[in-house]
Amino acid sequence: MPARDRLLALLVAVLWGCNFLAIHATLGQFPPVFAGGLRFAIIAIPTILFVPWPKVKIRHLLGYGLGFGTGQFVFLFIAMDTGMPTGLASLVLQASAPFTVLLGAVFLRERVSGRQLGGILLAVAGMATIAWQQAGNAALLPVILTLLGALSWAFGNLSTRQAAPDNPLNFVLWMSVVPPLPMFALSLAMEGPAEIGRSLSTLGTTTGLIGLGGLAYVVLFGTIVGSGIWTSLMRRNPAGVVAPFSLLVPVVGLSMAFLVLDERPSLVEIIAAAVVIGGVLFGSTKRRAREPDFLAEAETPQPTGVR
Fold first, then answer.
1. Where do the DSSP E strands lie in 146-294?
2. Contact indicator for 254, 272 with CB cutoff of 8 Å
3. What CA–CA distance (Å, rounded) separates 106 from 82?
4. pLDDT at 284 (0 to 100)
């Protein structure tokens, strides 16, 4: 992988890690489900007008849009709005990787290796430790909601595998057409027109401008720029070489939450975070096989889930 591409992969990790700060800012102005609908609606309109259809079956696009788009961000945004620390959210969402492996085994009959199972168990142990720690602070529900978001992302990943799009970026952009209607409907039912109207009528305030800035970052840098660079990297390089860079996302997320929001995870949470990241990395790579001669080739790692 060329040095230029490694730097671009690092840039994407930084963009996606900072995305959680932008979500935090957005939720300071907009109700969580309505904010998710806005995010995708802003992308969906120009997509319908200017982006070619990705040439996939509609059911796979719907599955990806409902899983990755609707389910993931409804649960994640509500979790962060109800007390999920921003940095920990970026970490717990990595549970999508082991969830994808397990769901692939159940629904797509994909084989789970011993190494993958070991990585899953490590990641689960780390997640359970974080949940236990948060339960002591009466904040278990946001962790559960974030895990449900990761599970939704994993279901979306199954639809992506079955779709096998020729142009992944077009597929991601067209996915954005699916979430707005169900999200706006949920927002009306759960948050009500009064709360939605308040968030729109106060956009000129300081909080409103910060919220708009956060939303703009999520749409432009977190989605379009980040996904565009990532897709180009996946085209030019083996997927297993690029995908592990996504494990830097929670590192950036935790660091930025500490620096900007003064979120200070406990020592137990830091150790658990390292276990989670190590488990995901261990389970998403193949062990280097020993060959009897000098022609042996190193096996490439399997990809993990990405944003």
1. none
2. no
3. 32
4. 67
Contact between 154 and 100 (Cβ < 8 Å):
yes
Q: Tell whether the model's pLDDT for residue 188 goes beyond 90.
A: yes
> pLDDT of 50-63, one tens digit each?
999 999 999 999 99
The amino acid occupying position 110 is E
In contact, 132 and 29? CB cutoff 8 Å: no
Cβ 96 vs Cβ 16: under 8 Å: no
Give CA–CA dist 29/206, Å, rounded. 10
- For residue 206, the tally of other CB atoms under 10 A from its CB is 9
Q: Is the pTM of this model over 0.85?
A: yes
In this structure, the number of other CB atoms found within 10 A of the CB of residue 159 comes to: 22
Task: State the amino acid at position 247 in one-letter form.
Answer: L
Tell me which residue of 214, 228, 247, 183 sits closest to 25, measured CA to CA. Answer: 214
Residue from 234, 257, 253 nearest 303 by CA: 234
Instruction: Give φ, ψ of 149 to 5 degrees.
Output: -65, -40
Distance CA 85, CA 264 (A): 9
Q: Using one digit for the tens of pLDDT, what is the confidence trace for 220-241? A: 999 999 988 988 887 787 766 7
96 contacts 153 by C-beta, under 8 angstroms: yes
The encoded tokens of residue 96 equal 């999508």
Which distant-in-sequence residues (6+ apart) come within 8 Å of 113 by Cβ? 286
Q: How big is the CA angle at 104 (ends 99 and 107), to the nearest 5 degrees?
A: 115
Q: Which of 303, 249, 267, 266 is nearest to 89 (CA)?
A: 249
Phi-psi region of 165 (alpha: psi -120 to 50; beta: other; left: phi over 0): beta
Tell me: pLDDT of 274 over 50: yes
pLDDT in tens, 97-151: 889 989 999 998 888 888 888 888 888 898 888 888 777 665 789 999 999 999 9
